[in-house]
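Hi V.,

You were right to ask for the full record rather than a summary. Here it is.
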Amino acid sequence: MNIYDSEEKILALVRSFEDATIARTEWKHPEHLVVALYYVSHFDVDTAIAKMRAGILDLLENGFKVDLAKEMPYHETITVFWIQTVAAFHASSNGKPLSCTRRPGA
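Predicted structure:
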């Protein structure tokens, strides 16, 4: 499992997501959440949702080569739920840097 304990590692993940270059084997739930946390810490919730939606769809189609006409693994309600949940978590972190928002003991 990757540990995102520095701004550099977080930015590298966000770039690989936005460039659709992250390997499918590396794009797991923790990576979704780190990117979501980055977005809600830099943008309003609506923009974060739009960026996550566009990024996931681009990653599926161009990075993972999923034929979205035949298969649609993206779910808007799940994305909105997680962005809103991560935004609430971020609001409760009192502005700590992303690399300091890991759960205790992690």
